[in-house]
Fold this sequence. Notes:
The structure holds two protein chains of two kinds.
Chain A: E1 4-11, H1 16-29, E2 33-37, E3 48-56, E4 69-74, H2 77-83, E5 87-96, H3 103-106, H4 116-121, E6 125-129, H5 131-138, H6 144-153, H7 160-170, H8 176-191
Parallel strand pairs in A: 1-4, 4-5, 5-6
Antiparallel strand pairs in A: 1-3, 2-3
Helix pairs in contact in A: 1-7, 5-6, 6-8, 7-8
Chain B: E1 4-8, H1 9-19, E2 24-27, H2 34-40, E3 47-50, H3 54-66, E4 71-76, H4 77-93, E5 99-105, H5 118-125, E6 129-130, H6 135-151, E7 156-161, H7 162-165, E8 167-172, H8 188-191, H9 195-215, E9 223-225, E10 228-235, H10 238-246, E11 250-254, E12 257-259, H11 263-272, E13 275-279, H12 285-292, H13 311-319, H14 343-353, E14 357-359, E15 376-378, H15 384-396, E16 404-409, H16 410-426, E17 431-437, H17 466-472, E18 477-482, H18 486-498, E19 502-508, E20 521-525, E21 544-546, E22 552-554, H19 564-568, E23 574-578
Parallel strand pairs in B: 2-3, 2-4, 4-5, 5-7, 6-7, 10-11, 10-13, 14-15, 14-16, 16-17, 17-19, 18-19
Antiparallel strand pairs in B: 1-8, 6-12, 9-11, 20-23, 21-22
Amino acid sequence: MQTKNIMIVGVGGQGTLLTSRILGGIAIEGGYDVKLSEVHGMAQRGGSVVTFVRYGETVAEPIVEEGQADVLIAFERLEALRYIHFLKKDGVLIVNDQKIEPITVVTGMAQYPEGIIEKLEEEHKVLKVDAMTEAKKLGNSKVFNIIVLGLAAAHMDFTKEQWIKVVENTVPKKTIEINTKAFELGWEIGKK
Amino acid sequence: MSEKKIMLGNEAIARGAWEAGVKVSAAYPGTPSTEISENVALYDEIYAEWSPNEKVATEVAIGASMSGVRSMVSMKHVGVNVASDPLYTVAYIGVNGGLVMVAADDPGMYSSQNEQDTRCVARAAQVPVIEPADSSEAKEFVKFAYDISEKYDTPVIVRTTTRLAHSQGIVELCDRDNREDRPYVKDIKKNVMMPGNAKLRHIVVEDRMKALAADGYDFPINKVEYNDTSIGFITSGIPYQYVKEAMPNASVLKLGMVHPLPKKLIEEFASKVDKLYIFEELEPVIEEQVKSWGIKCVGKEIFTLQGEYSATLLKKALLGQQPDVKEAADVPARPPILCPGCPHRSVYTVLKKLKIHAAGDIGCYTLGAVPPLSVVETSVCMGSSISTLHGMEKAKGKDYVKDWVAVIGDSTFLHTGINSLMNMVYNKGVGTVLILDNSTTAMTGHQDHAATGKTLKGETTYMINIYNLCKSLGIEHVYEVSSFDLEGLENAVKEETKREEVSVIICKAPCVLLKGNVFKTKCEPVPEKCKKCGACLRPGCPAITKNEDGTISIDDTMCNGCGLCKGLCKFDAIKEVEA
Lengths: 192, 579
């Protein structure tokens, strides 16, 4: 199998680390070699954050480079646009339809671009979800990232049972129920 | 089959220490090294502590080693500067129990103030350096480091980089080596470094480095892979992975020990390949030595001295290959900022209003240099705020610093800031020091320190009182103010900057991300009362955005209810509601 390249992008504090850990877990569950690369420290403070997941027979480089991502998971619209050039031509973009203004926009130094998703849809396969609204309906806005992951999972190689097992093993014990629900919701949306 | 686990590089280093039978670990937090200690602390067999700084941590590990147990000290690259005093001399003393220093470099400066290369320090200090290339090697190489530490009677540096420290890979777990402690032997000639003894030890050090360089030929961590011999790479650590990704058919000499270099192995490899490249991030440490031996090779002529490498960088530099990818979109930058509800924002809002300049330090609060706050005007290294302010005052006189303050966090103050404050008192300094006390080491992910009342192991301990500590230096004017008390803070800063003495204002409020620190309220706009003056927007809280009509919105998922915006609004156009 050719090495699969997954990228998760978002804003510091959106839970990219938890999501990448579940992706790492699913790769092991599938019997693959896997490498993940994360961002800690200063960059996490509300900045643009990227994590990489690569799995396959044997994986050397721990990062995904430009034009190589099979799946780009974006937790925010502007971040999807920022990293879209990492996506392969036939790759799929999973995007959470949410806007978080960067400080450069809040302070009037820059404009938040309009019509991002429409523009990206012209050139790529795009699956979008308003995960924040969906998560609030489930009663916990924090699990929006797991909904987005569920949507991405529906377009990847593993069975739903494998995913659920890994989600249960990765998230904090007290939150297993709500996270499983969130994952299943994302999965259903993705399969539609 | 033994158990396999996916582990962060830092987690694997901790596991390696445990498997090697380490009993004592000390560190000061610093990205990208912090998780080593956090994981070491989870093993019951290892005593693990946060020390106030890297120098102290290193000395703790040295003491443990002298007593006959295996010990570890870990830090980020700039921490090695702080620790270099004991490091340079323990290189002469050597070890009893194995002694490993893990030093985490940060090519690309993801979370650092410079891009220094620990290998240069290690060469100057005459300490061997081991460099793993993934999580699995991280664990195994740490164990190997302890073996050579004891065999060659030397401290050993395990060098990592951010990419290794914060990447996860599969690791095969082994059992712990429950070795006996080595007996302590009184040996003044070896352990007391005064001139007469040190002169003799220096000879030992040179001999030891020669022996390591020669024996490196057979070290299993130095690995030769002969494939197509028209191109050969000498590389180590994470850059090895980029070579394998970009040029899987090339021949490679992967060095596990990057100092001292195994000369014979390198000469042999160089003679078997037609064209030799040295692929190393940051300084040309391997390259310059190889060239000095008269071996023809190419390195920094085509590979940059700056930042992180990648497979694409290698292909571009070597093959002139431009990847077929689109240009990055031109989008607004999203730099890191202070969190919503961060107490530092409140303090900086006051300083900005009073047009005060701040000599800054290392921590989350360095972000006070970023617009729209732009209050912090200097930042050098840990503890530097207080001493740089003092230097300004001595250079330009006491009136010059009347619109200046030093800002320093609680953990950074205890790290080295305390020395600078002592200096101000001793040398009749004039100036106002703001200790931004958020009850944690925040930037690195909330580690405890000597003033939090908790140890790294999670045990309750004596809590050093920063107020009393400052008082004990003989400073008369020490005040504690809540970071969110805008009026109290403004008055204190106005009053103290006028004073021709040393003053300390401790601005207290726990980090908003600290576990258990939950605000019971959130802020909500009252649009009908809004005069669109923009006062609430000035601190640059990311939860507040301006609407097209000039009123504001507050993102209820981001707002932490600190009430700073409400306090700044003169028209009651922001209210607090239950969270």
